[in-house]
Each structure stands twice: as C-alpha cells, then as structure tokens.
C-alpha cells in the first residue's frame, strides 16, 4: 500500500549553519518518537552535503528542490541529478509552481528532469496545481490532469516511483488552504487519471501529497481524507516544532 509522507520544502531559506541546525533538530525529534509516516526535507543545493552528514538517513530522508534538465556539461550554474544523488540525497522536488512561474519550466523541461532524476536513482516529488484563475473558471481538473499526463511517457515501472504533490498555487504561502474536501476531490481525480493510464494497482500505490499553507492546525483534517497521503510543507517546515506538529498529525 502507498506510504504516508510529510516532506519539507525549505525553498531559498536558511544559511548552511542554520539549515544543519534545523535538520538536526528535526532528526532528533523524529528519532525520539514513533512516527507513522516517512519524513523528508528538501533543502537548497548548498545544504545537501552538510545536512546529509548531520542526519540519520534511516530516520529522515533528504532531497533537493530542483535539478538540471541536462545530464552534464557546459551549463554554468546548474546542478545535475547525478550531482544531487552523489550527495546522498534520495529525493528531488520537480515542477514546483515557483519553478514553473519564475523559471519557465514546462512539460518538456519537466519530462527531461524527471527522466534524469529516475536514471540517477532519485525519487521525484512531482508538483502539480492550478492558479487562482483556473480554480475560479472551473478548468482546474483539466489543468492538473494535463500536468500529470506530462509524465505519461514513462513506463509503468518508472511511474510507480513518482510521488505526486498537489499544490494549488493560490494556497502556496498565502495562508489560504484548500478545504479538505477540495483537496480530496482533486487527489481522487489525480488518482483516477493515473489509474486510467497505469491501472488501479499503480494508482492505489502512488502517494499524493497536499501542499499549500498546511500547518499543524489543519494537517489532521487534510490527512484524514482517503486520497491525501501527506503533505509538502513550505513555511511550516522552517521551524522544527511546526514541522513536527504536521508529522504528528499521522499519530
Ligand atoms: C510549497 O511551496 O511547497 C508550499 C506548500 O508552501 P507553503 O506551505 O508555505 O504554502
């Protein structure tokens, strides 16, 4: 059966020293308790090596927030999937709405990034989600469906390694959370789209996370929905106590 997962997305926050301290705090809190979900932190590239050295990979997973769409070579400033994997990280966030919006990532770049992530043994946390206008004009199911379908060139075995994160863009960092019902409806839609392509078994085994102003006070209600398998957490992942409050929503 699919896993419950809480993943943090630190974005462009914390210095290396602050990040290592935060990662240790989360790691130690997890090691001290009994948790009913997998927990992952996705951190800036500069933090991957020192954070990998500061945490226990059996307790806390580690990921990057992006990787290059090319394998290697003359791409100044880029960081490849194989470089990310060589730090000890096991995950990579791909297609976050901020990457789509500010860096022009589209289905073609994301297909290439996903292929490279998988080829290098990384688990993609693949983000999809509609903007406010699409929510309001009723096209949100189609928009998200076409974002998920961008991965449908993958063989079933490869698709089964993907974690999907539904992040309505209007809920990211805005304090506006989707209602648990809105999240459930979209997650069920995503699962049915996956089932239509890959069959029920793969769809049932795909973890679909919710992201967008998730916090300790609303996580339990969101995670109680049958198709919501955890969260991708931005702001609330930057403090160990709020992040742990979300992890504990599964207890
Ligand atoms: C995110 O950007 O992935 C996110 C979910 O952010 P926040 O929790 O801050 O809305």
Low-confidence stretches: none
- Please, how many helices? 12
Q: What integer value in Å does the Rg equal?
A: 17 Å
Biggest pleated-sheet summary: 8 strands, parallel, barrel
Keywords for this structure?
single chain; 251 residues; alpha/beta; 8-stranded parallel β-barrel; binds phosphoenolpyruvate
What does this structure look like?
Helix 1 runs parallel beside helix 12 and helix 11 (216-223) packs parallel to helix 12. The protein has 251 residues and is α/β, with parallel strands linked by helices. Helix content is 44%, strand content 15%. The chain contains 12 helices and 8 strands. It is globular, with a radius of gyration of 17 Å. Strand 3 (61-64), helix 3 (81-86) and strand 4 (91-94) form a beta-alpha-beta unit. Strands 1-2-3-4-5-6-7-8 form an 8-stranded parallel barrel, surrounded by 6 helices. The site of phosphoenolpyruvate (PEP) has 13 residues, from strand 8.
Short description:
The protein is α/β, with parallel strands linked by helices and 251 residues long. The chain has helices at residues 16-32, 48-54, 81-86, 97-103, 107-119, 132-136, 140-149, 156-159, 180-198, 200-205, 216-223, 240-247; strands at 5-9, 38-43, 61-64, 91-94, 123-128, 163-166, 208-211, 230-233.
Topology, element by element:
Layout: E1 5-9, H1 16-32, E2 38-43, H2 48-54, E3 61-64, H3 81-86, E4 91-94, H4 97-103, H5 107-119, E5 123-128, H6 132-136, H7 140-149, H8 156-159, E6 163-166, H9 180-198, H10 200-205, E7 208-211, H11 216-223, E8 230-233, H12 240-247
The structure holds phosphoenolpyruvate (PEP).
Phosphoenolpyruvate (PEP) is lined by residues 9, 167, 172-173, 211-214, 232-236.
